[in-house]
UniProtKB/TrEMBL annotation:
Recorded family membership: Belongs to the AspA/AstE family. Succinylglutamate desuccinylase subfamily.
Transmembrane annotation, as ranges: none
Top-level EC class as recorded in UniProt: hydrolase
Lineage, broadest ranks: Bacteria, Pseudomonadati, Pseudomonadota, Gammaproteobacteria, Vibrionales
Metabolic or biological pathway, per its Swiss-Prot or TrEMBL entry: Amino-acid degradation; L-arginine degradation via AST pathway; L-glutamate and succinate from L-arginine: step 5/5
Protein name: Succinylglutamate desuccinylase
Gene Ontology BP annotations: L-arginine catabolic process to L-glutamate; L-arginine catabolic process to succinate
Cofactor(s) the record lists: Zn(2+)
InterPro entries: AspA/AstE_fam, AstE_AspA_cat, Aste_AspA_hybrid_dom, SuccinylGlu_desuccinylase
Coiled-coil ranges (or none): none
Domain AstE/AspA barrel-sandwich hybrid: 263-335
Gene Ontology MF, one: succinylglutamate desuccinylase activity
Provenance organism: Photobacterium chitinilyticum
Residues reported to bind Zn(2+): 65, 68, 159
């Protein structure tokens, strides 16, 4: 069966991963008036029949890391429901299964961590750079093709963690000088029963940061459970998120709900960067995310420099001593209280 026909029948993921199939661009309008455009392999743009009123431009991406399969299954389910007419979107959508080569290889990436390549055009030295360039073009095309205001642009980049975590689900808010931490975005986290949010304090060229920085999108990197193979994900534990995502897509506006104590919010205190091959942690490489270390605890070292936990203690997130030199080895964070105004800010 041809590529485009598979997608029309709901097999978005199957067609995307079958690299023996030649890609076909195409567009079609369904009986409901919903318009679909297949822009590139793994990228489906969806436009509702009625664009009047307060419409959002919502990017929902998965597969930036190829072995993080539960988000990919969620996007496949959403795409299938839309193309079969079971889900009628109220907003413009860009649905993404990002990196088919890495997905087929059951690995995070092929040559470079693609979620550090969203900073503008990359030299096309490998497939990760090529795909990152294509995705940046797709997002730019999507946002530029809308009349929605900047505040109505959203991007949820769906991931899952490679290690255990004291919070099974959490969201990372990228740092941007744009107002990209709206109260409605954080209210969505509570609706989705996400356990924690982490407020970044410096730019990092992730996919969600790209949309926040260059297009003012309300953006999160969503960490949804732990890495598993296709068919082995416990999607029931993500039911609340899946239901909230469906409501975000199909309802004109979500009700504003906020209870401050239902969401643990952390601020980044430091980013430890691996400068040399001598970089070491004092704890195991598979240490759970959000593990707390008391003040003064030796956390690691790098070429004679020692890192100790700061006053009040710190928790570690995304520890990875095996990253390339010059890349982030971990984030160190502390719990914080926030002001829930039009923008969510640290008290």
């Amino acid at each position: 069966m041809a590529f485009l026909q598979q997608v029309k029948e709901g097999k978005f993921l199957e067609a995307t991963l079958d690299l023996s199939l030649a890609f076909e661009r195409g567009e079609w309008t369904m009986a409901s008036g919903v318009h679909c455009q297949l822009l590139m392999r793994g990228v489906l743009q969806v436009t509702p029949a009625d664009l009047s009123g307060n419409k959002k431009d919502i990017v929902l991406s998965s597969g930036v890391h190829g072995d993080e399969t539960s988000p990919i299954e969620l996007i496949q389910g959403l795409a299938e429901g839309i193309v079969k007419g079971d889900i009628i979107p109220a907003h413009r959508l860009l649905l993404i299964i990002a990196h088919p080569e890495a997905i087929n290889a059951h690995t995070r990436f092929i040559d470079e961590n693609m979620n550090r390549l969203f900073k503008g055009h990359n030299e096309e030295r490998n497939v990760d750079c090529i795909v990152a360039n294509q995705l940046q073009k797709a997002v730019s095309f999507f946002y530029s093709g809308s009349k929605a205001s900047t505040k109505d642009r959203w991007h949820l980049d769906l991931h899952c963690a490679i290690r255990d975590s004291d919070h099974y689900t959490f969201a990372v808010s990228p740092h941007s000088d744009n107002p990209t931490r709206s109260n409605r975005l954080f209210a969505f986290l509570q609706r989705a029963k996400i356990e924690a949010a982490l407020l970044s304090n410096s730019p990092s060229p992730t996919f969600s940061w790209y949309s926040a920085e260059y297009f003012g999108a309300q953006a999160f990197t969503m960490e949804l459970g732990k890495v598993a193979k296709f068919g082995e994900n416990d999607l029931e534990r993500l039911n609340a998120f899946s239901a909230a995502m469906l409501s975000l897509v199909t309802e004109p506006e979500l009700a504003m709900e906020w209870e401050g104590d239902r969401l643990c919010v952390y601020k980044v205190t430091r980013t430890l960067v691996k400068h040399t091959d001598a970089f070491r942690f004092t704890f195991p490489a598979n240490q759970a995310n959000f593990t707390y270390f008391e003040q003064g605890k030796l956390l690691g070292s790098d070429e004679g420099v020692e890192y100790f936990s700061l006053e009040g203690g710190e928790s570690v997130v995304f520890p990875n001593p095996n990253v390339a030199r010059g890349q982030r080895a971990c984030l160190l964070v502390k719990k914080t209280e926030v002001r829930f105004g039009e923008q969510v800010t640290v008290k």
